[in-house]
Structures are given as C-alpha cells and as structure tokens.
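Predict the holo structure. Ligand: pyridoxal-5'-phosphate.
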Amino acid sequence: MSGSPIWHPFTQHGLAEEIPLVARAEDALLHGDDGRQWIDAISSWWVTTHGHCHPRIMAAIAEQAGRLDQLIFAGWTHEPAEQLAAELVGMMPASLTRVFFSDSGSTSVEVALKMALGYWANRGEERHRIVVMEHSYHGDTIGAMSVGHRGVFNRTYAPLLFDVATVPFPHADAVQVTYDALEAACSAGAAAFIVEPLVLGSGGMLVYPPAVLAELRRICAAHGTLFIADEVMTGWGRTGTLLACEQAGIVPDLLCLSKGLTGGSVPLAVTLATEPIYAAHLSPDRAKMFFHSSSYTANPLACAAAAANLAVWREEPVAERVADLAARQSARIVALPGVENPRTCGTIAAAEVPGGEGYLATLAPRLSAFARDHGVLLRPLGNTVYVMPPYCITEAQLDRVYEVMAEGIAQLD
Ligand SMILES: *Cc1c(COP(=O)(O)O)cnc(C)c1O
C-alpha cells in the first residue's frame, strides 16, 4: 500500500488523479496547505450556502461544544433540538408540523419513504408502491438508490434495489405524458411520489417549471398518494426561494431537507411531516411507532449550527443575496461560449458542452482537472457544466469561474 489509506467517495483511485489537500476556507475560497487557492464554484457539492466558515455558525458550534456534545434522542431531548424544531416549523409551510431528525440527505429520504409506508400500514391500507421521476437522484443508500435513476452508478447493486414506478421527466413539449403516467400510477394505489422540485440535480441540472410541479402535486392529492418533496439540494435559497415548492404554491406531505440546513457546515437532516402522517403512528400499540433512529439523531452541535443558519436567514439579507446571485448567474451562463441549452434556476446555472460520445465520456474529469489547476473547484455532470456557488461569491470570483470554464471548454479536443 502506498500513500493515504483513505478510500474517497466517487473516486477512481486507479486513475491516480491528484487529490488536493485543503487546509482552511472562508467565504467562497478554499486554501491549500501549499499556498494554492480555489474558488469553490460548486459549494463543496451543493452544501455551502452563505459561505465557508460563516462566523455566526462557527460560533454557535463552539458555544454548544462547551455545553452538551451528544445525547440519546429516543425518549430524551435537548434545547438545541427543541429550539431548532420549533423555529423550523415556524419557518416552513404551516401544514408541516412534525420534525424528524437524521444525518444526511439520503437518510432523510429513507425516513420519508418509511413514514409513507408506515402511514398506509397503520391505517390498514395496502399501499406500498413508490412513484419516482426519470433522472432523479435521492442519495446513495439502498432505499434512496431504489427511488433514483438506474445507471452506471448503481448497476452493480441492482439486486438489492426495490421496484418502483417511474414517470418520464416532464419535457416542455411532452408534459402530458408525465401527467398521464403519474395519474395511472396514483390511480393504481401508489403509496407516495417522490420528486426533486424544479431541478433534478445529479440528473444533469434538468429544470422544469413551477406550473408542472403544481400539476404533479394536484394529481397526487386527487388520489391520496403522498407527495414527498426532496429539497435536499433545492432548499435554502438554491432555486431563488427558501423552498423550490414555494414557487409552485404547493406544500408536500413530506419534506426532506439537509445540505444547506446547517449552512453546509456539519451534517444534519430533517424530514418534516404533516399531522395526519404523525397521527397515523400514534397509538397505545408500540408496534405502530416509527421504527427509525441513528446514533447521532439530532446531534446537539449540528442542531446549534442549524439554529444559527436560521438566524442568518432571519437577520441577514439572504434573499437579496440570492436574487443578486441569480441575476449575475443568468447574465454569465448565456454569454458562456461553446455550450448549448444555457439555463438557470435561481442561483444554479447550467449548460451542455456538445460533442461526440468518446469526447463527452472524459469531459467531466478533464474539465475538473483544468479548473483545479487554474484555481477553481468545478465538477461537471457528464457533459453538463454548472456553477452553484456560495451566495457570498464576489463579482470578481464569479467572473474568474466563468473565464476558467470558457478556457477549459475551449482547450478540450
Ligand atoms: C445530495 C442529495 C441527496 C443525498 O444527500 P446526502 O447528504 O449526500 O446523503 C438526496 N437528494 C438530493 C436531491 C440531493 O441532491
């Protein structure tokens, strides 16, 4: 064995690509231990919202660390969790009254799926089929993979995945096909439909309009099929509003939040549920409780970080920063040379690099390496290039990101 013992996620160690070492970060900037700097153009995989090491969030973690580190959360509670849950319920749509904590986006999805099945089972109804959207991504645990796109990322694990019903992505010229497929699945008694509102992230930053989201919600409601909004990526301002669902004027039955929940500082997730879903699990019968926990459920340090994030949202002009970044992004992506189908959704900008199949197969790693060597952290999805920076990114930094992206695309052949 040579080098580091670390086995990195989504990394082919056989290719021996450079793995830069980052020593510290602030705002949109990462600093290497060797003096190099990188502009974090993808928010460290979509988590960093306000900026790295936001002083208020860092201070909240430090302060909490002096009081209570960790506590069993089955049958016990603590102030950071109580405060955070109460504030979240106040901030989120009124019908989402219950907060279940977990540790990652994937687990928040697993929890939502289990709650949906628990709801139907405890009501004595035979509904267990899950409906998903083509090209979706909901995480990498077995259940989350089962409801996500089937491809090279999970082909090996296919024997472990459960069956779902899939509706086509709502392409602008064929939304009715999606509606009809959802209608058919719901009328056949589907338990729940899970979807990423407005933007399918890992699927290639595929965007669809709020009116379509509203119609999908309407179809589910008409058949009692529970609507699960996976806002793990889209939440916390990413699409221009606190939640993407707001733009469609809809409220889901179950809402998954993670990534920006702590401003992107430490791991935490929540699944918010409506009162009927919670009530379906209430009984003198212990067999009807919600059977889920992980060791670090509602870790106090993470809850303190999330509470500080909520304070930042309340007290800093976050909505203005988001609107400002959205405008800056859309002006730049349309001016990016060498790409097709430029699009934005709030603070997210994306486009495709056209080309032949062999060329496209290596485009993402080559462009990532070029950007890395020119001071920018980028990670294209196949031939989809995108920029999703922290909201504090400066004018000059954003210019540099687009400059490096244009140079990187131009030198590909
Ligand atoms: C990132 C992501 C997840 C998984 O979150 P993890 O914290 O990586 O487990 C789930 N859903 C969506 C939409 C995501 O973007």
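Residues 338 and 409 are 7 Å apart (CA to CA). Residues 104-106, 109, 137-139, 196, 201, 230, 232-233, 258 surround pyridoxal-5'-phosphate (CB under 6 Å).
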